[in-house]
Amino acid sequence: MNDLRPPAEDRPVAPGIPEATVARLPLYLRALTALGETGLRTVSSEQLATAAGVNSAKLRKDLSYLGSYGTRGVGYDVEYLRYQIAREIGLNEDWAVVIIGIGNLGQALSNYGGFRSRGFRIVSLVDGDPARVGEQHGDLVIESMSDLDRIVKENDISIGVIATPGDAAQGVADRLVSAGVTSILNFAPAVLTVPSGIDVRKVDLSIELQILAYHEQRKRLPGEVRS
Ligand SMILES: NC(=O)c1ccc[n+]([C@@H]2O[C@H](COP(=O)([O-])OP(=O)(O)OC[C@H]3O[C@@H](n4cnc5c(N)ncnc54)[C@H](O)[C@@H]3O)[C@@H](O)[C@H]2O)c1
Fold this sequence. Notes:
alpha/beta, 227 residues, globular
C-alpha cells in the first residue's frame, strides 16, 4: 500500500492531530486542488468527501483538527482550506520579503512574528537614511538603498514592503521594480505607478477607520432612518 504520509521531517509539529488524519490530508489537498482548478470557490463537506473518497463525518472531524469548521450552508473556502492543509503538511512556499523604511511602522512590521508562520520571511530591512544603516533589529541589520539590487538578487526577493513617507514611495517603488521585485505592499499614503506585471496592494488603516466611523454613525441614527 502506498504510504501517503509526508516524510517525517515535514510532519506537523502541532500536537493532537492523529496520524490517520495526517495521512488523509494529502487526499484532501489533491481533491481541493482539482476542485479549485474547475473554478469552484466553496465546497461542501459532502462534495469534498466524495472527491477525496472518504466519508463526510470523518472529513469534518479531520478538518476540525486544523481549526477549519466551514460555514453552515456555504461550506469551506476551497483556496483557504487548500492553503491551511498545505501549510500543515509543510508544502507552502516561503516568500522572502524586504521592508523599506525602518521607522515606526517598518520596525513594528519587522518585529511581528506572525508573518513567518504564514510563509513570509523578512530577509532584509533597508532605509534611505545613512545614519540608520548598520542598526541591529532582531536578527537583521539595516542595509543601504544602494545595496538593494544585490539584496533582492541574493535573497530571491519578490515582495517589497514600502513603509517610507508618502513623498518617497514612488521613488522607492521604482527602485524595487528595477531591482527585480514584482509585488509591492504599500503602506505609504501615495498612489504608485508601476509597469504592467507588477502587483501593488495598498494598506491604509485610516480608510478602514473611516469605514468603521461610517458604520458607527449609522448605529446612532434612529431605527427608521437607518433601515
Ligand atoms: N497604511 C497605514 O495604515 C499606515 C499606518 C501608519 C503609518 N503609515 C505610513 O507609513 C509610513 C511610515 O510611517 P512611520 O511612522 O514609520 O514613519 P517614520 O518617519 O518613522 O519612518 C520612515 C522611514 O523611512 C525612511 N525613508 C525616508 N525616505 C526614504 C527613502 N527615499 N528611501 C528609503 N527609506 C526612506 C526614513 O529614514 C525613516 O526611517 C508613512 O508614509 C506613514 O504615513 C501608514
